[in-house]
Structures are given as structure tokens and as C-alpha cells.
Design a protein that fits this description.
Elements: E1 3-8, E2 15-16, E3 19-20, E4 26-30, H1 34-43, E5 52-56, E6 62-66, H2 71-74, E7 80-86, H3 95-98, E8 104-106, E9 110-111, E10 114-118, H4 121-127, E11 131-133, H5 150-161, H6 167-183, H7 188-200, H8 203-212, E12 214-215, E13 220-221, H9 223-232, H10 252-275
Parallel strand pairs: 6-11
Antiparallel strand pairs: 1-7, 2-9, 3-4, 4-8, 5-6, 7-10, 12-13
């Protein structure tokens, strides 16, 4: 019999009951990878969406990296319990998790087979050769210098959450957007803008649209690719006021206007000085 590991900051549980989460419905989540379960046990204690990135680097070393400053500080000294469960009921919960089987779920109550108590989860990861990359070293594991790329990640997750087009899925997806906007306020309008477009696209086009949003090499939103996609798919954003926002991050136009005003003011002041 194989095993699944479920991480939690709650200790002494005898059964793990399905709970509602950001996915539609109530489930028990787990991973066949013990270290991943440790990470999931503490990641909820951070204050950002997608606060940490984990995976395997080019040398096959398991790592955990900060996407925002001081995220390791927020999860230091947190105790965890890792529960061993039977793998029998667990399945990949979408096409996006089927490939690596890192996170699985079941809608059935699970009996705890074993509990391991970890006094300091972050220190445990360090002692078990997990490479910890602080925010200043995030680019070593492929995290871009600018956080604007996270808009694409937020929207990709949004498309996954509305896959079945149900009311519950949309409500949970909207909760996801609201949480992300509160944590990334500088991109709140942009997230709303693109989510509105995703809602108007047929299911098979949604993720294709998300794919074209961001130019990873230039670390910026690809306006030309976005306009081309909208044109090819006959999405007319000019007919609806809610789509009148520019295809640029929130605040860009304001700073551009401020710059123009500053230049005009400087020219006027120069002319005034010369006449005096």
C-alpha cells in the first residue's frame, strides 16, 4: 500500500475531514512527497498569494524560494504535523496536477495512520537538504526580477478554477481574485480587466489567452500579442466600458501624464527665466 502525506499546523488529529478551500467543493489534500507536505503545512501562514516557489533545480536539488521579501520570516518557528494517509482514495484533481502528481485530493474522510510532529518546519526543510533561496536570490531559480509576472499566474489559476463553469466555481474563483488583488494592489485593475476578458472566452480559448499575456524575456505585458489574440477571436473590448482600461499595469498612465506635465512645466520655467 502506498501513502499520501497531509501537512497541517493542527496536531493530534485522528481523522482528516474534507474542508472547503479555493477549489470547488470540500476535499482532503495531500502529496506523495513528504517534503512537499511539510511546505504545504506552513505556506498558508504567509500573507501573499503564491508566496513561495518550490521545485527541483537543474541539478535535481529540491528548493524553496521567496517570491516576496521576508516570507521565510513569516513561517519561521512554526510547528507542523505530517499525517500519513492511505493513497487509495487520492486522485489528481485537474489536468494541471495530473502530470507531476505533487498535489492530490479526495472527497472522502481519511483515517490517520501515523502522525509526525515537527517542531520547526522551516528548519526541518533546511536540515533535509532543501535549498532555501531568499528574495534577493530568487532569479537563480527562474523567478523574474519584477513581480508583474504574477498577474499571469493569478489569471492562470483563475482559469483552472472556473473549468466546470459552475456557480460555485466562479464564486471560489472570484474569492481567489479578491485575495490576490488585496495582496497585489498595484495590479488590481489589471487583474479585473483580464479576468473579464477570460469570462467572455470559450473554455478552450481561456488558457491560450493567458499564455499570450506576458513576455518572460522582456518581463512585461505583451500588448501586441494581446491585441492580436483579441482580434483573431473577435473580442471587441471597445463596446463595454468595463473594458476601456489600457493594456498596461495600473498607474502607468498616471505616471506618464505626470512626466509630461513635469516636462511642460520645466520648459515653461526655462522660457520664463530667459525673458526675465
Amino acid at each position: 500500500m502506498g501513502y499520501i502525506y497531509h501537512g497541517s499546523t493542527i496536531s493530534n488529529l485522528k481523522v482528516i475531514e474534507p474542508n472547503s478551500s479555493t477549489q470547488a467543493g470540500s476535499y482532503v489534500y495531500g502529496s506523495p512527497n513528504y517534503l512537499v507536505a511539510v511546505i504545504f503545512s506552513i505556506i498558508q501562514k504567509t500573507d501573499k498569494p503564491f508566496p513561495l516557489k518550490f521545485g527541483w533545480d537543474k541539478d535535481e536539488n529540491f528548493y524553496l524560494a521567496e517570491r516576496f521579501p521576508h516570507q521565510f520570516d513569516s513561517i519561521s518557528n512554526i510547528s507542523s504535523s505530517i499525517y500519513t494517509l492511505s493513497e487509495n482514495d487520492f486522485k489528481a484533481f485537474s489536468n494541471h496536477s495530473a502530470g507531476n502528481n505533487i498535489e492530490l485530493r479526495t472527497d472522502k474522510v481519511q483515517m490517520v495512520l501515523k502522525e509526525d510532529k515537527i517542531e520547526n518546519a522551516l528548519e526541518y526543510l533546511r536540515k533535509h537538504n532543501v535549498c532555501l533561496y531568499p528574495y534577493s536570490e530568487r532569479e537563480k531559480v527562474g523567478i523574474p526580477h519584477s513581480n508583474n509576472y504574477m498577474v499571469q499566474g493569478v489569471l492562470r489559476t483563475y482559469t483552472w478554477k472556473i473549468e466546470d463553469n459552475s456557480t460555485d466555481s466562479y464564486l471560489l474563483a472570484q474569492n481567489h481574485l479578491d485575495y490576490c488583488k488585496s495582496a497585489l494592489p498595484q495590479y488590481a485593475n489589471l487583474i479585473d480587466y483580464y479576468a473579464d476578458i477570460i469570462n467572455r472566452l470559450p473554455k478552450e480559448k481561456r488558457e491560450l489567452f493567458v499564455d499570450c499575456l506576458y513576455d518572460k524575456q522582456k518581463e512585461r505585458f505583451d500588448k501586441n500579442a494581446i491585441k492580436k489574440f483579441l482580434k483573431e477571436n473577435k473580442i471587441d473590448i471597445s463596446k463595454n466600458k468595463s473594458y476601456s482600461k489600457k493594456l498596461v499595469p495600473n498607474g502607468f498612465c498616471f505616471y506618464m501624464l505626470l512626466g509630461i506635465i513635469s516636462i511642460v512645466g520645466l520648459v515653461f520655467l526655462t522660457l520664463l527665466i530667459r525673458t526675465i
